[in-house]
Amino acid sequence: MDPTIRYCRTDDGFDIAFWAVGKGPSLVAMPSLPWSHIQLEWSIPAVRDWYDAIGRGRRLVRYDGRGFGLSSRDVAEVSLESDVSDLAAVIDGLSLDSFDLYAGWHSGPAAIAYAARHPERVDHLVLFCSYADGAGHRTNPLTQATRPIILQDWEFYSQLVARLLLGWTETEPAQAFSDLVRRCTSPEFAARALAATSGFDVSHLLKDVSVPTLVIHRPEQRPSSMDNARALAAGLPDVRLSLQPGESIAPYLGNTDAIVREIDAFLTGRHPTDADTTGDAAQPAALPPGLEMSGGISTVVFTDVVGSTGMVETLGDEAARAALRTLEDTTSETASRRTGRVVKHLGDGSLLEFASTSAALRFATELQAASSEIGLEIAIGIAVGEPIREEGDLHGSIVVLASRITAAAGPGEVLASDAVRQLVQGKSFTFGDAGTRHLKGFDEPAHLWRLRLD
User: Fold this and answer.
1) Exposure string for 162-199, b = 16+ CB within 10 A, e = fewer
2) What is the C-alpha separation between 245 and 284, in angstroms, rounded?
3) Which fold has domain 6-274?
4) Which of 178, 234, 326, 369 has a 20 to 30 A CA-CA distance from 133?
């Protein structure tokens, strides 16, 4: 069954068509203008399978930008700010306090701008074959050869998009996508929109994107150069770069399974080496000289039941164990909603890992409320750093630090390291100064902060 199409309105009065399917953490997939039609693309099997795959376990949101698909067509121009405005309208229309954001090719600059301006709302950012500065597209040989055809022969250009730019090889799906191109907008507006992308430039905003970002690039495809991926990886503070084989600018063609696994591992907080590597998908391409893969930093969370020994004496072994099992289940469910990973349960507590510090803090707030309903009092400690990963477990000084911070926390309290507080400055979290503590095993005193839970 096709998803239900709904509408929201931008601040400047344009109607934006969107759909939202599934349950779980929200993933907003932006349109890569100008080829967007949220009803027609759902009828193309490869695109539909892509949405099913990246939306598994999530609430997936897709929309048409102004001038395209089912959104308002009476639009004079497209700009970077209009793209940001369309995204903001969907976010506000769905009342999303936090979400993950996916952007491919031309939608990347608007996604970067939104994430830089609203770090409190974006948990993770995924960029596929995208760029920060669109000026390079003006000199791209493929761009120079194909864009003049838009106004000369719209039908022929739509075939070029399907077969040359995206790489459809089978006749039926290639024709279906060619039809989508012709129906999603007018040739005049497509020409203006693509010309506008050459002026998109958010290079100066890269340093302000504090959310964890995954940059996926296919060096073999021609529309977006490897220089674009290199600039993104070099300019973003918290980035993971994944190079994948393939000649298509479309993620739903080629090694789609590997790309889905990479995205899922990133959004769920697993390290890439923990992701499923079964199947016959091709392995990621080697990094170019001088560029290193990053992404080993995680937010580590410990939970501990306060007074567990006394609880056993009061309730008895069987009832106490039942309460702890309920807490374990609640911990796992709450972490899953916030794309965290339970590393292990420890009898009266748990060790968890999050790729997003914001997600870890939201998890801690929600778990404290849930544990109170169960009738248990827990202490939570949070630290951020680069743990040692071995067979799914975490080790190293950052894990020890999180454990010691937990030991310093009282019943119903969430304590965090100073690095945690600094990483989420400007977001919707309030901390109280918990002072400096001398933690066992650490020479220097640690400045701790108490997360306000109300």
Assistant:
1) bbebbbbeeeebbebbbbbbbebbebebbbbbbebbbe
2) 6
3) Rossmann fold (3.40.50)
4) 178
Residue 444 buriedness (CB in 10 A; 0-12 / 13-18 / 19+) = exposed
Q: How far is CA 384 from CA 234, 357, 361, 377, 449, in A?
A: 21, 8, 11, 24, 13
Which residues does residue 215 pair with via DSSP β-bridges, in sequence order? Answer: 127, 241
- Give every CB contact of residue 163 below 8 A, 6+ residues apart in sequence: 169, 174, 178
- Residue 103 CA, distance from chain mean position: 9
Strands 378-385 and 349-354: unpaired
Residue 50 near residue 173 (C-beta atoms within 8 A): no
Q: What size, in residues, is the chain?
A: 454
Task: Count each helix (H run) and each strand (E run) in the chain, helices first.
Answer: 16, 17
Q: Return the structure tokens found at 253.
A: 């063609």
Q: Read off the amino acid at residue 185.
A: T
Pairing between β-strand 213-217 and β-strand 99-104 as defined by DSSP bridges: unpaired
Dump the DSSP string for 368-431: HHHHHHHT--EEEEEEEE--EEETTEEESHHHHHHHHHHHH--TT-EEEEHHHHHHTTTSS--E
Question: What are the 10-residue block averages of pLDDT along the chain, 454 residues in total?
Answer: 92 96 94 88 90 94 96 92 97 95 95 95 94 81 80 88 77 85 92 91 94 90 83 87 85 89 83 39 36 57 82 66 87 84 89 87 94 90 88 87 95 94 84 94 91 88
Contact 134, 202 (CB under 8 A): no
What is the C-alpha separation between 34 and 165, in angstroms, rounded? 13
Q: Which residues contact 327 (CB under 8 A, 6 or more apart)?
A: 305, 371, 374, 376, 378
CA dist., res. 299 & res. 386, Å (int): 8
* Rounded CA separation 7/19 (Å): 8
Spell out the domain ranges in the chain: 6-274, 298-451
State whether the Cα torsion 79-66-248-20 is positive or negative: positive
Tabulate helix, strand, coil % of the chain (nearest 5).
40, 20, 40
Q: Model-level pTM?
A: 0.64
Read off the DSSP letter of residue 68: S
Write down the CATH superfamily of domain 298-451: Nucleotide cyclase, GGDEF domain (3.30.70.1230)
